[in-house]
Each structure stands twice: as C-alpha cells, then as structure tokens.
Design a protein that fits this description.
Order of helices and strands: HHHHHHHHHHHHHHHHHHHH
Number of strands: 0
Distance between the termini: 18 Å
Largest sheet: none
Strand content: under 5%
CATH architecture of the largest domain: Up-down Bundle
CATH class of the largest domain: Mainly Alpha
CATH topology of the largest domain: Growth Hormone, Chain: A
Number of domains: 2
CATH superfamily of the largest domain: MFS general substrate transporter like domains
Number of helices: 20
Structural class: mainly alpha
Radius of gyration: 23 Å
Shape: globular
Helix content: over 70%
Length: 431
C-alpha cells in the first residue's frame, strides 16, 4: 500500500489496470449469459467460454510484442482507445439487433471481444516493464502483491456484479457494452494524464543503450527465434529455472485440485454442509479468500521464507487434502487445507513474479512472462487429465492416493533443489 500512495507512476498503472480488469470481468461473464439465450446456445456458450481462455494462451506472442514495442506509453494509450472503440461497435450492434443474431454475426462479436482481451494481455506485458523501471527492487514484492490482489478481487467481485447488473439493466446488452467502453476510456485517460512520467521511465531511446549491430539483429529477429532464445535464457537462470520446474509441477497438480474436489464431493455426501452446491461454493470461496489474502498480506510471517519453503507448505496442504479424502473424511480439514494451499500459492505467484522482474533482462521481460504463463496454463489441464482420468478409470480414492504420493515426492524434490542451490536461494532471499 505504501508504494501505491507514494509512487505516482505505479498508482496510475494500477488504477488503469483495475479499470481494464473491471471491463474484462464484467463483459466476459455477461457475454456467456447472452450466449445462453441464443437458439444455438450449446455451441455459443462453448465458444464464449473458450474465448475467455484463448487470449491467455497467446501470452507468448503478446509478451514478445510488448518487448519489441518502442514508445510504450503511446501504445498503452492507443490500445485502450482501440478497446473502447471495439466495445462501442458492440454497443451499436447489440442496440440494432434486439432479436437473436445469426451465428456468423455472433462469431464476429466474439472476435471483437477476443481482440480486446488480447490487447489487454499486451498491455499487461508492457506493464511489467513499467514496474521494473518505476519501482525500487526492495519494494517490488509489495507492488506485485497489491497488483495480484487487485486483479483477483476485481475478477471475483465484478464477475458476480456483472451477472446481477445485466438483470438490473433488463438484459440491455448494448448499454452494458457502452459501460465497458467507458471503463477502457477511463483507463486510457489515466495513462494519458501521467504519460510524461511513465515515458521518462520506459521510453528510452534504444540507440543510447544498444550498438548498431544489436539494433540490426533485433530488427531481423523473428518471433519463434526470440521465443527459443527466451527458453534458453531461462534454462541458464540458476536462480529461476529450478524454481520454475517446481512451480510448473506444483501448478500441474494444484490446477487439478478444483475439479477433483468437485467430483469427490459429488460422490461423498457425508462431507456436505447442507448439500453439494453449498459445500462446493464454500470451498471455492475459501480458496478465493486465501488467494486474495496471500497477495494482500505481503508483510506476514512468510515474508522472509525461501520460495522453496513456501512451496513445501503448499505441497503439504495438498498432502493433507489427499489424506482427508482418503482417510480422515472431515469437511473442516478440507477447508483448512484449501485455505493453506491458496494462501501459500498466492505467495509463490507474487514471489516468483518479483524474482523474474529483478533477474530477467528488460529486453526479454514480457516474453519471459509470456513463456512462463503459457507453461502454467499447460500444467493445469495436464494435471486435470491425469488425476480426473484416474478417478474415472479406476476410482476417486486411488486418484487422491496418487495425488498425495506425488505431492510428497515433490516435497523431496524441492528439498533437493534447495540443498543443491544454496547460493541461488540466498540470492532469492534478498528480494
């Protein structure tokens, strides 16, 4: 919070990102609601749901674009203006089409929304560079913590508000799109108001920092070659790479947690508090609260812990969850384990982001973030495929037993990584 109050550039960036997040969160859920009203609703809802994930899968590309961008502050303003314009088109289209729209027009509207979300990911890539230049290394943890917490709060709160607001507006989707356009306009105006300060930190003339040969190489550098180079750079980051492997593996099993809990609760009524729906909802709320508090409370007792130690706490909570579903059978243990897992996982996200911002060269910072986020996106469905597959092919207890054993193996792996990388860990503790 101190960084938000004292750092004008960071405050402007965070305020703009919050408005952007409100726009994205509000309309993504509302568009799915709209899709459910169409005659071809099964296809429409499926396409709308996938559209919310697709831009995240493109972070490798948008990160590369962000790294190659010059005059970054101009792009931050221009992209918000384009997003505003796209939603104005949506507003007009919905207003002119009161009845059900044909599939082709629906797909065109979906492409507009996806384009806006892709621009949002591009903005996020540029924002990482802004944070690196405008926040001192000692305060990056706090800055990333607050940004992460606000992103999660906006996503949770405004998705719920969107579903309620569209009802209050009598399902006037045109007016709703207009409201969204205003959020993007507001975000752009915030950046415009602070453009000189942001430009002074980010829009550095490359001629002053790069030799002519480097400039020529960059101008002919292709996306795939750059991505491969980013992966190689990550491989040689002695501080980051072992933790990245651990993080990927933990994310793979942690990402399957929600689906496995849902399947288990559906089949074990003795764990219910009233009914299945209530129990699942409470579990997910506890998980969300844990994620938010983990990001907000940056100065808690875990502040000076090594990132591998926090990873072990996350893994221990997953072991506890597996033990609960196979032996203990207590919904209260489930709630405790879910909160522990979410709280510490949020800490890891923040700590790893801070580590990356400080250790990765700014020329590849957004690209590296894109590579890492893409790897994390792949990990979650991979874990779901494995553990939900075991639950369906064999049974739920075998799935949870495997889940717990793998978590224990990862704890041993984490300890091994720590012992072999004492110097790297001591560097990471200074963050």
């Amino acid at each position: 919070m101190h960084e938000y109050g004292s750092n004008k550039i960071y405050r402007a960036l965070l305020n703009a990102n919050v408005l952007n997040g409100i726009g994205d969160s509000l309309f993504n859920i509302v568009f799915i609601i709209y899709a459910a009203t169409l005659p071809y609703k099964t296809l429409a809802v499926s396409l709308a749901s996938f559209a919310t994930v697709f831009p995240i899968l493109l972070q490798l590309l948008t990160g590369y674009w962000a790294d190659q961008t010059r005059k970054k502050v101009n792009k931050l303003i221009a992209t918000r203006a384009i997003q505003c314009g796209l939603f104005l088109i949506l507003a007009v289209t919905f207003t002119l089409n009161h009845q059900s729209i044909p599939l082709l027009l629906f797909i065109l509207l979906l492409l507009i929304i996806v384009s806006s979300d892709v621009l949002g990911e591009y903005n996020s890539g540029i924002g990482i560079t802004v944070i690196k230049h405008s926040v001192t290394p000692s305060n990056i943890d706090d800055a990333v913590s607050l940004s992460s917490a606000m992103t999660q709060i906006v996503s949770i709160v405004f998705q719920g508000l969107g579903a309620g607001l569209i009802v209050l507006l009598n399902h006037n989707y045109g007016l709703f799109a207009l409201i969204n356009a205003c959020t993007f306009l507001g975000a752009g105006l915030i950046i415009l108001k602070n453009r000189k300060e942001i430009a002074s930190k980010t829009d550095i003339d490359p001629k002053k920092t790069e030799s002519p040969s480097v400039q020529t190489e960059k101008s002919t550098h292709h996306f795939f070659a750059s991505s491969w180079e980013t992966l190689k750079d990550l491989r040689h980051q002695s501080t980051i790479f072992p933790i990245l492997i651990l993080f990927f593996l933990v994310n793979s099993i942690g990402g399957s947690c929600e689906g496995l809990i849902s399947v288990t609760l559906a089949n074990q009524s003795f764990l219910w508090l009233g009914n299945f729906g209530n129990t699942l909802a409470i579990t997910l709320i506890i998980f969300s609260v844990g994620m938010i508090l983990g990001a907000l409370l940056s100065n808690d007792f875990l502040k000076n812990w090594q990132i591998t130690s926090i990873l072990n706490v996350t893994l221990f909570s997953l072991v506890l969850m597996a033990l609960d579903f196979t032996i203990l059978g207590s919904v209260w243990v489930l709630f405790i384990a879910a909160f522990m897992a979410a709280y510490t996982l949020s800490k890891i996200n923040v700590r790893f982001s801070s580590l990356m911002i400080q250790k990765i060269d700014e020329k590849h910072l957004a690209s590296t973030a894109g590579v890492i986020n893409t790897l994390m996106m792949v990990g979650a469905p991979l874990g779901q495929f494995v553990f939900l597959g075991i639950a369906n092919i064999i049974n739920i207890h075998v799935s949870w037993f495997s889940y717990g054993v793998i978590s224990l193996v990862l704890i041993a792996f984490s300890i091994s990584v720590t012992n072999k990388s004492n110097q790297s860990v001591s560097d990471e503790k200074t963050i």
